[in-house]
Design a protein that fits this description.
CATH class: Mainly Alpha
Number of domains: 1
Radius of gyration: 13 Å
Order of helices and strands: HEHHEEH
Largest sheet: 3 strands, antiparallel
Oligomer: single chain
Number of strands: 3
Helix content: 40-55%
Structural class: alpha+beta
CATH topology: Arc Repressor Mutant, subunit A
Distance between the termini: 25 Å
CATH superfamily: Winged helix-like DNA-binding domain superfamily/Winged helix DNA-binding domain
Strand content: 15-25%
Shape: globular
Number of helices: 4
């Protein structure tokens, strides 16, 4: 497994964990701040890539809200995504850290 794959898998689990710990929905700006806080250097494109991957895997649903400066993506946690955040294995996603 390459370093890039490890980083992507880690980003995916942390997005799911952040969504689970919140009300089940967060916008891309908040998710970016949370990923940066835990050591990931990400920009808007990186976060949207993670959200699109998770949506394609049916773990989250994304909502794209129009704004004057473009659009903002909001991620909504689905039950399958919550199961992965709770430890259910899923290809392409790191296991959650032990707490």
């Amino acid at each position: 497994m390459s370093l890039a794959e490890v980083i992507q898998e880690d980003r995916r689990i942390y997005v799911l964990l952040c969504l689970k710990e919140s009300s089940g929905q967060l916008n891309e700006a908040v998710l970016r701040k949370l990923l940066v806080k835990i050591g990931h250097q990400v920009d808007e494109t990186d976060v949207r890539g993670v959200l699109q991957w998770l949506a394609d895997a049916a773990l989250i649903r994304t909502e794209k809200l129009p704004m004057d400066s473009g659009e903002v993506w909001v991620a909504h946690l689905l039950s399958a995504g919550e199961a992965v955040a709770d430890g259910k294995p899923h290809p392409g996603i790191a296991r959650p850290p032990l707490r």
